[in-house]
Design goal:
six-stranded mixed β-barrel; globular; Cathepsin D, subunit A, domain 1; 3 domains; ten-stranded mixed beta sheet; alpha+beta; 23% helix
């Protein structure tokens, strides 16, 4: 669904020291393609080397420290660093990718206050706001110095600044998540736009919510909020980013949310007007017209689970995650402002896709074209269903591209190519949508940095 109520990093940092490379395109223009995704056994891993973001010798040439950092190649970033503060920023990014968010917070905070390098200061302050939000440290977020808040406010709409978020949630009780020892098998259905839907109970009332890894927190329609007795926290209106643009929302707190026997208490949330909590149906799915959304379960809850999405059997299996000792070379799931999946592209080079199960289709961004030598065909028009309205684009598509993921090959045909939809320090090569889950069985275990796909 591409809800982005989080803090987005400034584009000027992502662009620092990076330049566009020439991309060759075929001149032909085709009608709108139909994206298809398939999961196959890896044909061969010969010649492919897993490239971890840390602990390996750099084999890719980058133009600058920021170029390497934006590609999550922190080993190369260290070799390209001009001074120690850049190396400390790289270390903070490494802690964040490791899941050591509190340690990253301390380093970003120190750098933001003490460094004399303008780029490092700006980057550290923006990332500090992101990791504070991730940890629900709203009071600390509200107490940041005015210059830090000013930097973080820049990429946001005027009514969605940091002070408003901090004020709305600064006094909420501590969030709690109870996952029973016994796995929960939750009935799973597919919406008419292809997204995963499960039953939930909010304050004793039953609804159907999307499972959306692309939403940083839970979202409720105004009708759902009224029926469940979830009140807005104050009169301030915020803005959240969707595929169709900015949508107004008000902050709220869900006292109790139940998924089977899983109980989430004091979950921060957004309320969106019910007229906007709809998406336009797509011709490739059954039905027509606008589809109502009761609400959305976001990444702040999903990351607390060991989740398997199995459309073929109509099940979402939710387990209490158990921390395991897994080689860093095998990690495939990270968080850097958004959940990110690392895949292996051509010649073993890592590519990074945002994980967004609320998106109907998988797509690429221009960054992938700079890493992969693939033909690109122009496309006349593409219609995207989003909250509020539909948006049409003129874009391009890749006829076929394959990625390796832990012994499986992900084959995407007719993959559309867009400019980056949002800015972080990471050059996201694309977005993995719900069509990936529909192609097989998807497992998400953020505790162990695990994203896995298997065939039905």
């Amino acid at each position: 669904m591409n809800f982005r109520p989080g803090i987005m990093a400034a584009a000027l940092i992502a662009q620092a020291g990076c330049s566009q490379r020439n991309i060759t395109q075929q001149p032909a223009v085709e009608a709108e393609p139909r994206v298809s995704v398939a999961i196959e056994r890896a044909r061969s891993t010969r010649g492919l080397t897993v490239r971890p973001y840390i602990g390996a010798k750099p084999t890719v040439v980058y133009e600058s420290f920021w170029d390497a950092t934006s590609n999550l190649d922190l080993v190369a970033a260290d070799t390209l660093a001009d001074h120690n503060d850049q190396r400390r920023f790289s270390a903070a990014m490494g802690l964040m990718l490791d899941g050591e968010v509190h340690g990253a917070e301390q380093l970003f905070d120190s750098l933001g206050r003490k460094t004399e390098n303008a780029f490092v200061a700006t980057a550290s302050r923006v990332m500090l706001t992101a990791v504070l939000q991730y940890q629900d440290k709203w009071k600390a977020l509200g107490s940041l110095p005015a210059d830090t808040i000013g930097v973080a406010r820049a990429p946001l709409q005027k009514n969605a600044d940091v002070e408003v978020w901090a004020r709305a949630f600064s006094d909420v009780p501590a969030r709690s998540v109870f996952v029973p020892a016994r796995e929960q098998i939750i009935p799973l259905s597919i919406s008419r736009v292809g997204t995963p839907v499960i039953p939930v109970r909010i304050n004793g009332r039953d609804f159907f919510f999307w499972l959306d890894t692309g939403a940083s927190m839970s979202i409720l329609s105004s009708s759902t909020a009224r029926e469940a007795g979830v009140a807005a926290r104050g009169a301030d209106t915020l803005s959240i980013a969707t595929a169709a643009g900015q949508v107004p929302a008000v902050p709220a707190l869900i006292t109790t949310m139940e998924i089977g026997q899983i109980k989430v208490g004091n979950a921060t949330a957004m309320i969106v007007d019910e007229s906007l909590m709809r998406v336009r149906d797509s011709a490739r799915f059954s039905g027509s017209g606008n589809i109502r959304i009761d609400g959305i379960i976001g990444w702040d809850t999903i990351r607390e689970l060991d989740l398997t999405i199995d459309f073929a059997h109509g099940e979402a299996v939710m387990r209490r995650p158990v921390r395991r000792t897994i080689s860093r070379d095998l990690w495939t799931l990270f968080w850097a402002g958004v959940p990110i999946v690392r895949l292996q592209g051509g010649l073993g080079r890592a590519v990074h896709f945002a994980l967004d199960t609320g998106a109907q289709e998988t797509f690429a961004t221009q960054w992938l074209l700079e890493k992969a030598l693939v033909p690109v065909v122009s496309v006349e028009r593409k219609r995207i269903g989003g909250m509020g309205e539909d948006i049409s684009y003129t874009t391009r598509h890749i006829p076929q591209v394959s990625f390796d993921l832990s012994g499986q090959t992900l084959v995407v045909k007719q993959m559309l190519v867009y400019a980056p939809a949002f800015w972080t320090f990471v050059h996201l090569d694309g977005v993995l949508g719900s069509d990936v889950a529909r192609a097989g069985v998807m497992r998400i275990d953020a505790t162990n940095h695990l994203f896995a796909l298997s065939r039905n």
